[in-house]
Amino acid sequence: MKVKRFFARTMAEALKQVSQDMGPDAVILSNRRVDGGVEIVTALDYDENMARQRLGEKADEATSGARLAELQAEQHRRLEDELQRSRERIREIREQRSQPAETMALDDLGLARAMADEPAPVASAPAGDYSRELARMREEISSLRELVRGQQPDAAPRPGLGAVQQRLAERLQEFGLGAELAATLSRRHKAGRLEDGWKQALKMLAAGVRTSRQEWLDQGGVYALVGPTGSGKTTTIGKLAARYVLRHGPDALALVTTDRYRVAAHEQLFVFGRILNVPVRVVDESHSLDDILDELSDRHLVLIDTAGLTPSDRGCQEQLAELARSRHGVRTHLVVSATSQPRIMKSVWHCYKMASLAGCVVTKVDEALTLGESLGFVMETGLPVAYYTNGQKIPEDLHHAEPAPLVRLAVERLKRLQLQRTVAEGA
């Protein structure tokens, strides 16, 4: 999403600038009268979900799409104004280098005190101090420029963070982590360069992400996938089943569905069963889950698909309770879409944790803009990641999860996003 501000004497002139610079697809986030004319803030590829992520907690104030656009415009104006102030400060520092030593010393002891006409002792200041100050200011401008370009989701400084820690926290939020987790990881970086802190944070993230040590296909047992509609439960079971049949054959595998609440809900699972020559059983009023699992006790692996019902639906609670109290030690895993917002992920977890979750499966990794949201979710909830999926191909797009490769994949996704933004801005 590219955000840009335009000034002109009249609205017609401003709209002409928008048309010439941004093209016909630009979305107007806000317009207002200012001294000397009008101001318009526009965006290309405007996405409300992305806007909410960038605004962070501030997005809670948005009661409508129009208010969200206004907040995004306000954030952009504030960042551009801060960028301009930083440029002016650098210009002032450069000018001071050509001033007499007395003036330089006055400013070196504090610009605010000099502007207030307070007396200050005169002393010579080494030129190296100004070089360091200029370098620090250049870093600040670089960081602000990235913010203005929309590459950081939260521009507000975090209390208790130094300059490098703040920039590290901002990069981690761009990576997709929540503000609190990003700040926590940044505080661990006590001193050193930004890149050193970045590498350290990624190592800590990999250490904090738990995964399943052994694959279900080899370990065997009874596994159930739960989660909201559209999260990818049935497709993931199809991938797991296909891979198991390729490795071990169909004789020791069975599929079960508890979705008796929707018409023709289990048809896709029956299709998988027919293709793989694997039995599919349906839990209903006449056949309880434990009765069916008793009959399938000779199977090495049993995969259970469930209905994606809303938490307010009584059938959802019945289904989760049945899984939790089963005497067959069902290992229930939450299926989480990587495209979901962090708050939605946490909400889904709260709804399904009554089923005594043993872990999770992350789906739709290929569709997610960034993967830090998913890594932050599993790190905060402590759910081990068993598998992740990154496409619709069966069974190729299913991968056993490991911490370091997951973090590397997230970094690659961030680099791809940054490259896309750079190309878009240069177009």
Mean pLDDT: 79
Q: In angstroms, what separates the terminal alpha carbons?
A: 13 Å
Q: Biggest sheet: strands, sense, closure?
A: 8 strands, mixed
Task: State Rg.
Answer: 28 Å
Report the total helices. 17
Assign the structural class, choosing from mainly alpha, mainly beta, alpha/beta, alpha+beta, or little secondary structure. alpha/beta
- Order of secondary-structure elements: EHEEHHHHHHHHHEHEHEHEHEHEHEEH
Q: Which stretches are poorly predicted, pLDDT < 50 over at least 5 residues?
A: 101-127, 150-155
Q: What fraction, in percent, of the residue positions are helical? A: 40-55%
Question: How many β-strand runs?
Answer: 11
Proportion of strand residues = 5-15%
Tell the overall outline: elongated
Spatial strand order of the main sheet: 6-5-7-4-8-9-10-11
What does this structure look like?
By secondary structure, the chain is α/β, with parallel strands linked by helices. The two termini are 13 Å apart. Helix 16 links the parallel strand 9 and strand 10. Helices cover 51% and strands 15% of the residues. Helix 2 crosses helix 3, helix 3 packs antiparallel against helix 6 and helix 9 packs across helix 17. The strands form two sheets. Strands 6-5-7-4-8-9-10-11 form an eight-stranded mixed sheet, sandwiched between helices. The protein has a three-stranded antiparallel sheet with strand order 1-3-2, sandwiched between helices.
Short description:
By secondary structure, this protein is α/β, with parallel strands linked by helices. It has helices at residues 11-22, 48-55, 65-97, 101-108, 111-115, 127-148, 163-175, 179-187, 194-208, 216-219, 233-248, 267-276, 289-295, 314-324, 342-352, 372-381, 403-426, and strands spanning 2-8, 27-34, 37-44, 221-226, 253-257, 280-282, 301-305, 331-337, 359-363, 385-389, 398-400.
